[in-house]
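Progress note, sequence design subtask.
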């Protein structure tokens, strides 16, 4: 049976980074773009309808965040994640990446340390460094001790303890679910993270932007806040942008129960004049959380089938490449080390020989060397062509 997600939506010549920046990024427009972490699917109709309705009013002036926006978010997390959020805990933010930058400035001083767990989303590195703070790396371990599967990553909690014990360590940036390795952290792992943070008085900034994007056949995502105590130093970053494919609208939220930490974050935003509300961002945010549930459920079923197609195709048709089924996100982490190419050669192979544009693993840290990140948020026909091109190039 055909799915609405099978229908291609042309994104070329729409100023799309994913499509219209191909020449600048890959040196050619003749690559299939499966890199930037947005999807090639139309957003939920309810979101588009709400944006159109707002556009009918011809004045697009300075805008407040309506109470209904907060209530839509509170209801979403209560019903979907069993997380009860108080209205006063929420601080609206101009995106998760600016929030990570602001957190580095709010909770660590210049020259102090911020722990990250590579291979990880590149702005984790740049946010720390550009704010004048110091990156402390706690690399993930690419092996499941229960199965020996090198495609399944785990945290090195003993090493995390050592990192947290450093006298300059102030913050842990947690990516949950993890981009790019696709892990949905277990309750046991998250409880250990909280215990380490308590012992060493770390502020945990938990980026949970992919929290809604977990597969039905894999473990459910656990919001770290549901395991935290009232005295834990926790900041949770969330957004509807990945869930409903509208990251260009650029609005997210921080949930910060502690009033002083909330005040510190707000002060950073205000110092940069960032708390501006875009009238369309506000409308899209609320419409996604209020009406996007059925669309999201259909999306995850489609993405699961895409994921399974890629796992099977890679295993059967792409010698020298391995991939594990992610537990969350629409991103897959391809292990290409057996191809015997260095990172420059690997990029040339995929771009010039295969005509496929992916994110090089090295951009996620040195532990990403030899890997590529594949975005499966696209019609199945696109993935079929991607696999076919790589197979032919091999």
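Output:
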């Amino acid at each position: 049976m055909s799915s609405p997600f099978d229908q291609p939506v042309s994104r070329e010549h729409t100023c799309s980074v994913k499509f219209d920046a191909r020449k600048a990024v890959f040196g050619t427009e003749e690559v299939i773009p499966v890199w930037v972490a947005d999807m090639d699917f139309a957003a939920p109709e309810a979101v588009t309808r709400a944006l159109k309705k707002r556009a009918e009013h011809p004045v697009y002036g300075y805008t407040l965040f309506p109470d209904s926006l907060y209530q839509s978010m509170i209801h979403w997390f209560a019903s979907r994640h069993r997380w009860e959020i108080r209205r006063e805990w929420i601080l609206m933010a101009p995106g998760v990446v600016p929030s990570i930058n602001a957190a580095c400035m709010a909770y660590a001083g210049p020259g102090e340390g911020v722990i990250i767990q590579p291979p990880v989303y590149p702005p984790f590195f740049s946010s720390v460094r550009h704010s004048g703070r110091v990156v402390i790396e706690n690399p993930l371990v690419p092996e499941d001790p229960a199965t020996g599967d090198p495609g399944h990553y785990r945290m090195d909690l003993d090493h995390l303890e050592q990192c947290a014990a450093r006298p300059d360590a102030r913050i842990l940036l947690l990516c949950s679910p993890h981009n790019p390795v696709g892990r949905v952290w277990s309750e046991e792992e998250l409880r250990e993270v909280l215990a380490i943070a308590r012992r060493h008085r770390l502020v945990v900034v938990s980026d949970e932007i992919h929290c809604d994007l977990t597969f039905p056949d894999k473990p459910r995502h656990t919001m770290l806040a549901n395991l935290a105590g009232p005295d834990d130093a926790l900041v949770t970053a969330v957004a509807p942008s990945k869930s409903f494919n509208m990251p260009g609208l650029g609005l997210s939220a921080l949930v910060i129960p502690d009033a002083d930490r909330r005040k510190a974050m707000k002060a950073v935003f205000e110092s940069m004049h960032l708390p501006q509300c875009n009238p369309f961002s506000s409308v899209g945010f609320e419409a996604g959380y209020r009406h996007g549930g059925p669309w999201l459920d259909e999306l995850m079923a489609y993405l699961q089938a895409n994921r399974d197609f890629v796992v099977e195709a890679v295993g059967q048709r792409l010698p020298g490449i391995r991939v594990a089924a992610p537990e969350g996100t629409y991103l897959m982490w391809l292990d290409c080390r057996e191809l015997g190419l260095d990172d420059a050669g690997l990029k040339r192979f995929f771009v010039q020989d295969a005509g496929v544009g992916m994110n090089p693993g090295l951009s996620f840290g040195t532990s990403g060397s030899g890997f590529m990140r594949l975005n499966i948020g696209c019609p199945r026909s696109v993935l079929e062509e991607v696999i076919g091109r790589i197979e032919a190039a091999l």
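The mean pLDDT is 96. Work on this subtask will continue into the next period as scheduled.
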